[in-house]
Amino acid sequence: MAKKLAIIASKGTLDGAYPPFLLASTAVALGFEVKIFFTFYGLQLLNKELNLKVSPLGNPAMPMPVPVPSIVQVIPGLEWFATWMMKRKLKQKGVASVEQLRDICVETGVDLIACQMTVDLFDFNEDDFIDGISSGGAATYLEFAGDADVSLYI
Length: 154
Description:
Blueprint: E1 4-9, H1 14-29, E2 33-38, H2 78-92, H3 98-107, E3 111-115, H4 116-121, E4 134-136, H5 138-145, E5 150-153
Helix pairs in contact: 1-3
């Protein structure tokens, strides 16, 4: 019987997108059965068109080329700059894109579950999302997570 990995993806930022897709794609390659439950802002990661950003505001661990005091992080344009820096660093290091990791998850059978309550709450349309996902509520996630070997909240 395969090990099971249950993940809750709750962040819709560029830096928040990597952990669920990276862990899921690695786990499925190791023979795990994997389900990711996308809720609240994490649901953004299932959109066909991704426009993910990195915010330095409230992210004191973010490495910057020069120290940036918290008060400066509210300056317009700094989010754009932080996002540009992160995308540049990922490309320089040869890290797969979020879209590539997401595609790998779909192709390898990771169950990507859109939280139905969040879909309804934010008036999403099924056409907004990539193909190959399912939907369900908290009970759908908990039924699987209750038997999972590893459960993660990201």
